[in-house]
Amino acid sequence: MLTLFRWLLRLTVGLILVMVIATVLVWYFATRSLPDYNANYQMAGLSGPVEIVRSTENVPHIFGASDADVFFALGVAHAQDRLFQMTVLRRAAQGRLAEIYGASAFRGDDLARRLGLYRHARESLAAQDDYTKAALEAYSAGVNEWIAQINRDAAGRGAPEFFLFPDEIAAWKPADSLAVLKLVAATSSSAIRTEVLNARLSIARSDIGPQLAALPGDAPLPDYASLFPGARLMPPAPDADAPSWDEALAGYLDPGLGLSATAFAAAPDRTAAQGSILANSPEGPLTAPSLWYLARLELQQGGVIGGTIPGIPAVLSGRNTGLAWGVTPAGIDDADLFIEELQPGDITRHRGVDGWTDFTSRREVIRIRDGEDQPITLRWTANGAVLPGVDFDLADVTPRGHVAALAWTGASDDDATMSGLIGLMRAPDRSTAATALAQVTTPALQVTMADRDGVGQQLAGRAPRRDTAHPTGGRMPAPGWEPASSWQGLAPAAEILGSALPGQAGADGIVLATGEGAVGPRLARLTRLAEDREVQSRDSFIAIQLDVVSPAARSLLPLVGADLWFTGEPAATGTPERQRQDALNLLAEWDGEMNEHLPEPAIYSAWMLALQDRLIRDELGPLSEDITALYPSFIEAVFRNRNGAAAWCDVAQSAPVEDCATIARQSLDAAILDLTDRYGPDVTTWRWGDVHVATQFHPSLGHLPGLSWVVNLSQSTSGDGFTLAQGGLLGSGANPFRNVTGAGYRGVYDLADPDSSVFIISTGQSGHPLSRHYDDLAELWRRGEYIGMSLDPELARAAATGITRLTPPTE
User: Fold this and answer.
1) Among the listed residues 350, 338, 359, the one whose alpha carbon sits nearest the alpha carbon of residue 228
2) 467 annotated as a binding-site residue
3) Domains of the chain, residue spans
4) What is 552-591+599-686's CATH number?
5) What integer is the mean pLDDT of 248-253?
6) Could you tell me the pTM of the whole model?
7) 336 marked as part of a ligand binding site
């Protein structure tokens, strides 16, 4: 027995030692990839010395003798802090994520190949102007020199993720930056999902279905089935392999998801200091690290500072010495789906405008880590690329014997958008910026600008020309063989839409943009806040940018609760009736502020989700499972009985005829029951922040046990999907109130005192989980705080916490 005890003791001690040694080795190799910001490097490709001065928050201020050297150093800085993220973004655009992630990434790779993101990017390189080509070349050289430096110094492969996802780091090419921009453009548009949803609603209930997603003023849509007489539409089938929210963001961005933003500006005569002010907050999926990266470039014509995306050598939102700008996805319909009929007996041919014709096709192979390579056949019609039925629920709207093809403005081989964006950041004033923006194709952007003389906006990008006889107006898939369905080329979006998008500079000196159209609730709230004050300041702009009052809540609660307020005798404590009364009493006094410390936002949000589900479930059946977003305009139409919409309140499967007040009360009771199960019976102790948690998910490591708590950032947040400080909800799953979208970047630029301008991102500058700069800005972001964005070189050097010096190689 004593001998056994000794051997067990030795084995235990040995295992502990092995674990300690393994932990030390992992820590050593992981920390080897942390860059030294106080270092000197000799790098080929430079024409002179360059300094990368790091501020306290790790914002690089880059000083060089030429613009090419500055772009070179930006490539170095991006690669130092976000190399793995850059390679993942590139792979997502190339359709090569499965090579490192395995079979789970196959569907995303397949879609990227069919969209041709990298192919169109590579072809568009020739369309860039000479300055942009030189910037792309210099930036690529900087990234590659840092990769070479990592290899020479055995610096942990540049990021700890490369140890878990081993693969050779290919050299960065100018086309790679264009491909990342294409990926951003593909993610910006939600046109495909909107078309499919409209068609599915029409199939489910052709008489009232499309009312769900329609906005006031939208033209009626045709019955979708009538577009394909005699064709057989298959019943909707659940997609068991559909990726979750986190899985879909394996490449940080998800084509078709849709991005948003707010931007607003005030002219000098509307500001306290008599100088223009501009604020911008681009919004998208919350990831760790953030998609955004702060940087300052000292170019020959002056300094530029603001938000960049790793992989793209341009400040997309920011200011220079004379101009401030902010970008908002324009929200235009830049894509159309076409239903193409296959020739009976020959699936290699389809019905075109002039009869049966061959597909254009090509074979490619998707390599899969730990799996067999998968060959795919890419096909095109005259209308665009053929997409498989598994994407965007296309199978539910594609008749048997047909396939769906996509036309998209981004499927262009002469896309000079990068030149337009680099030209924008170099422009000294609004007039020059407008000229540069004429080069933009996709994504279509509403660009808000401010200079010393005033403010303005420009709609940049291209939009399709559609025939006035188009069968669906581009709002649902259309028969691909009908001539009226086909696009008639592209034109500047401003030429096609005219004044259809709101927010042009007016006599009052205020311009606004949210990218949601003239009737959007966020634009209405922004308009009110901006116009309520005669004189604006930097601090008032910050307050508007951080506003968490939900216009949706303010408009819906008086309608939905109209017949429920203060009704019935006081109920006994602890009863469901008393809970309902307490909840209604709280909501009756609430101003719609979605504050994380209040119970009212939780009650309201749970109530509205339960109400919408109850309204649509019996009418739409399984389709209701896929409707995860709240549609305030639909609920408002129902409770105002617009065009007989109150019919949605009656539950078709029940014998009684339910009215809207009954459905509202039943939905509130269901919401209270759900929240009681989560947080107890006392409604006054519930807190919005307990359910509205922003989990900034690491796309590569966030799902791994033991690592998730290190790499994922979780914080309670205020707001919802309709507040100016956006906190978009997941809408499904165990916690439908999880905050999954928000402003990854916020900036406020004051041209009266430019160095008092401020900005922030949602995580930290570094993508390295062991860096102190991985999450050091996250808490500031959550609290609505900012950091300074000065262009004063002396101030940058005085506050430097590290200076990296790059020099050309000595002979």
Assistant:
1) 338
2) no
3) 1-32, 552-591+599-686
4) 1.10.1400
5) 96
6) 0.94
7) yes
